Amino acid sequence: MGIKSFQGRRAKTDAKKEYKAPIMVTDYMTKKLVTFTPKQSILAVMETFTKYNISGGPVLDDNGFLVGIISEADCMKQISESRYFNQPILDKSVERFMTKNVDTIPHDMSIFDAAGVFHKGNRRRLPVMQDGLLIGQISRKDIVVAALKLSGQNW
Predict the structure, then answer these.
(1) DSSP readout, 108-140?
(2) For the chain, how far is it from start to end, CA to CA, in angstroms?
(3) Which end of the chain is more exposed for a tag (fewer CB within 10 A), N or C?
(4) Dist. CA 86–CA 6, nearest whole Å
(5) Confidence class of residue 2 from pLDDT cuts 50, 70 and 90?
(6) What are the start-end ranges of the E strands in the chain?
(7) Which domains does the chain have, with CATH numbers?
(8) Residue 98: CB partners within 8 Å, gap ≥ 6?
(9) Nearest to 92 by CA among 141, 51, 152, 43
(10) 39 CB contacts (<8 Å, ≥6 apart)?
(11) Residue 78 · residue 92 · CB < 8 Å
């Protein structure tokens, strides 16, 4: 006598899973950003970091296009140089210290793919772009929050 299956008939499943929870970068990114300009002083940037409790932000030109990103790590360069030359922190501009070659991600990327970008790179935040324009920023913490919200779902 053969072994019978007690599970009954299985429902047909599509090859492509549909997620019930939102999984796109735009669902978890920060939309209200603190931005900086290339001519802004590095001292003003540090004060803004402290005021808003942030560790970095995008640098936009006069037309609103992304030209760089400034972070606490970039500010460390200024602090280090001022100590080396025995000078106070001067009103040097952001464009001197900002990262100009900015890694960005598209707005329609999933949080799983974004997690892969963070894993491969050494970035804490990434600007989110749509049609060449900055629409938000996503951080490592945003990805972790998204993963926690999805932990009850089937990936």
Answers:
(1) T-BHHHHHHHHHHS--SEEEEEETTEEEEEEEH
(2) 39
(3) N
(4) 80
(5) low
(6) 56-60, 66-71, 105-106, 125-130, 133-139
(7) 25-150 (3.10.580.10)
(8) 36, 38, 59, 67, 68, 69, 70, 74
(9) 43
(10) 93, 94, 95
(11) yes
